[in-house]
TrEMBL record:
Residues 76-279 form the FAD-binding PCMH-type domain. This is FAD-binding PCMH-type domain-containing protein. InterPro entries: Cytok_DH_C_sf, FAD-bd_oxidored_4_C, FAD-bd_PCMH, FAD-bd_PCMH-like_sf, FAD-bd_PCMH_sub1, FAD-bd_PCMH_sub2, FAD-linked_Oxase-like_C, Oxid_FAD_bind_N. Its cofactor is FAD. Pfam families: FAD-oxidase_C, FAD_binding_4. GO terms for cellular component: mitochondrion. It comes from Aspergillus avenaceus. Residues 1-20, 223-242 are annotated as: Disordered. GO terms for molecular function: D-lactate dehydrogenase (cytochrome) activity; D-lactate dehydrogenase (NAD+) activity; FAD binding. Keywords: FAD, Flavoprotein, Oxidoreductase. Residues 230-241 have a biased composition (Basic and acidic residues).
Length: 570
């Protein structure tokens, strides 16, 4: 295990010496590596992580590229030694080959905005970050007739939306966006992020990828493997005209490989197709408030058949009272107590804001006759919950949460949702994100368990259910004070208990922070860890030196002794 060399105050560091060197790498070798990297990408695209400035950025719009802004371990634990930004696909290939030659681990990221899950930070301290977003940030194509885009890693949801606006394409197509618009389309999709239009499942809606493999070779998946007969073969492969069906049919021929590049360490995605939604020709967002905490079960039972039948057309979001409250205010305006808020306090917040203990946000798409028909079914269904109230955006002109969702649900990105992080001073956040069935029983049981444990560890329960088609992503927002070591420690202890208790009940997480990947990977252990064994076999075959993202999602290459590196020490 690499220690922090002199960040903890031992020998003074040379000017070009990083806080943390890569494993098995002394300063002389690191310097040789950087000189070679510089000759590939040019000096402006190489940065050693060696100054306080490099690790002091804490703003979403100006994220750190070197460490986790919402760290729960020491700030300098998950940290890179240097960040290298390739200018193009051949640079990525050359950097990958160089890393193999030097046996230095690398960790690609797109925008560095994987907030709540580790940001741009690497799993192995001292890895070299590969900043895929800095220079490779083009929308390569939008096809408004067949409704897709082809993008590079540095295209974020704001960029894609802006591209559609600038080219007057919004009347033809919309891009799905998640809560925060600054994330990379590719990065978010590979992490299996979720947005809120009918195209909310980004992984489901991606189509075709170009990938740099750990050995530096380049491939295209799906129909992209079939050459376009019109392609100019004199160009390098990454510039050749792709097959015209690349973004139309995901599967191609033979084993469908895309899955091994998602939440994985098996390749670096340098181009990806994403389906766009045709402009539906009409739109209306709504909010339904439910007065009592106990309404959860009944609400979810009503949601299931409506969502599976696609009467609920989008990914609706069911927020507990504090998600909405935190968007519009700070905790200290409601309570001075450092104990979790009580039932009467929560009821009072709901009353003051004119919202429910649970609030369902959704949208309808299509011409008015279609929306009217859908609304009559939706309204009749949820009216079975006593006290349910129904609002359209225009009924609550001052409601920040509703207004923001109304934009998000029609593909207009923002960063307003980030405001709930300021519920506490110095708010940092960590997500616990188990999958739930769309049943009243499961929702109630997950809510009870996660709320009880959150409160035992001194945190308010702030959570939302995002309804996929046959499951819900239950997002428990663990909000801590990042300047308070005790608050960080409690957040970390809480999520470890949540993961274990959830697994005991058959619940697993869809995505995880760097610090929790090992533990969660170990819960997916059916039949003597058969799936992990296959992942390790693939990892060792594709990346025999274990260079690309060692430890990503709990998959450790053979070159790393797992027992020494795992952060899960039960
Ligand atoms: C949210 C949603 C997520 C996630 C983290 C946060 C929304 C928070 C469905 O995915 O992973 C309110």
């Amino acid at each position: 295990m690499t220690g922090l060399n002199s960040a903890n105050g031992n020998a003074p560091r040379a000017k070009d010496e990083p806080f943390v060197l890569p494993p098995n790498t002394d300063l002389a070798k690191f310097r040789r590596f950087l000189a070679r990297a510089t000759s590939i990408v040019e000096e402006v695209n190489v940065k050693v992580v060696n100054s306080q400035d490099d690790i002091s950025q804490e703003e979403y719009m100006h994220p750190s590229k070197a460490h986790d802004m919402y760290h729960i371990l020491e700030k300098t634990h998950f940290i890179s030694s240097a960040v290298v930004a390739p200018r193009n696909v051949p640079d990525v290939q050359e950097v990958m080959k160089l890393a193999n030659e030097f046996e230095i681990p690398v960790w690609p990221f797109s925008m560095g905005r994987n907030v709540g899950y580790g940001g741009a930070a690497p799993r192995v301290p001292g890895s070299v970050g590969i900043d895929m977003g800095k220079n490779m940030n083009k929308v390569l194509e939008v096809n408004a007739e067949s409704c897709y885009a082809l993008v590079e890693p540095g295209v974020c949801f704001f960029d894609l939306h802006e591209y559609l606006e600038k080219n007057n394409l919004r009347d033809k197509v919309w891009a799905d966006v998640p809560d925060l618009g600054g994330g990379s389309v590719i990065g978010n999709t590979l992490e299996r992020g979720v947005g809120y239009t009918p195209y909310g499942d980004h992984w489901m809606m991606h189509c075709g990828m170009e990938v740099v493999m750990p050995d530096g070779s380049l491939l295209r998946t799906g129909m992209g493997a079939l050459p376009n007969p019109k392609a100019d073969k004199s160009k390098p492969p990454h510039e050749q005209e792709p097959n015209e069906s690349w973004q139309l049919f995901n599967y191609g021929f033979g084993p469908h490989n895309d899955g091994i590049f998602s939440q994985s360490s098996f390749g670096i995605v340098v181009k990806m197709g994403i389906w766009l939604m045709p402009n539906p020709g009409g739109y209306q967002a709504y909010m339904i408030t439910f007065p009592r905490d106990e309404d959860l079960e009944q609400i979810v039972e009503i949601i299931r058949p409506l969502r599976i039948a696609m009467v609920l057309q989008n990914v609706p979001k069911l927020d507990n009272v504090l998600v909405s409250a935190a968007l519009e205010g700070h905790r200290d305006s409601y309570s001075n107590s450092d104990k979790p808020l009580t039932e009467p306090e929560l009821d009072k917040i709901a009353k003051d804001l004119g919202i429910g203990r649970w609030n369902l946000y959704g949208a309808m798409y299509g011409p008015e006759v279609v929306r009217d028909a859908l609304w009559s079914v939706i309204k009749a269904s949820f009216s079975k919950v006593p006290g349910a109230k129904f609002y359209f955006t225009q009924d609550r002109p001052d409601d920040v949460a509703l207004k923001t969702r109304s934009n998000t649900f029609q593909g207009v990105p923002s960063i307003t949702e980030l405001q709930w992080v300021d519920w506490l001073p110095n708010g940092g956040h960590l997500f616990f994100a188990p999958i739930a069935k769309v049943t009243g029983d499961d929702a109630k049981a997950q809510y009870e368990l996660t709320r009880r444990l959150s409160e035992e560890y001194g945190f308010d329960f702030i959570g939302a259910f995002l309804v996929g088609v046959r499951e819900m992503h239950h997002i428990v927002c663990i909000l801590f004070d990042r300047k308070d070591p005790d608050s960080r420690r409690r957040a970390h202890a809480l999520i470890k208990v949540l993961i274990a208790e959830a697994a005991n009940r058959g619940w697993g997480e869809y995505r995880a922070h760097l610090a929790l990947m090992d533990q969660i990977a170990e819960t997916y252990n059916f039949n003597d860890n058969a799936q992990m064994k296959m992942n390790e076999t693939l990892k060792n075959a594709l990346d025999p030196k274990g260079i690309l993202c060692p430890g990503k999602n709990g998959v450790w290459p053979a070159t790393y002794k797992k027992e020494d590196w795992t952060l899960h020490k039960p």
